[in-house]
Amino acid sequence: MSCAQILSAARAALSGIPKEGLGEERSSRWRGQRIVRVGEAWHVGVLLLTDDGALATGEILRAGDPGRRGYAAESARARAARRQMALRGGFREGDVVHVGWSVIDVAAVDVGGASGPLALQGGVPMVRWSGSSYRPLEAYLQEQVDLKTGR
Questions:
Q1: Which of 71, 89, 103, 121 has a CA between 20 and 30 Å from the CA of residue 64?
Q2: Are 141 and 131 in contact (CB under 8 A)?
């Protein structure tokens, strides 16, 4: 089976399962910095599946108001600020937001190349899921879909 066919089968199995928000950073003089919704996708491990494409995951956060808290680390303060940027951009409190994702060229994989975490090895679509470890994409997605659907 081709990479495109495997991804299409996963989308069909996920229909009816809620998607999560895709966000992009925007900045303007009047609205300031924010993360706005640009789409939605199913989060399946290292991949995000849209209705017609595939993306490699980036940063994952939950939209939220940071409130007044003391932070032990500057990184925690920065993450809270990014959560608030998602609220300012129109996400609801608690929404999962994917930022910094990248588009995967599925057609390139199907002709023997690689794109993002996907590659064709020995004629089999593979996914890089842990460091440099690859595993067959079909089995990986089946496992991820089973987790999402409770099978």
A1: 103
A2: no
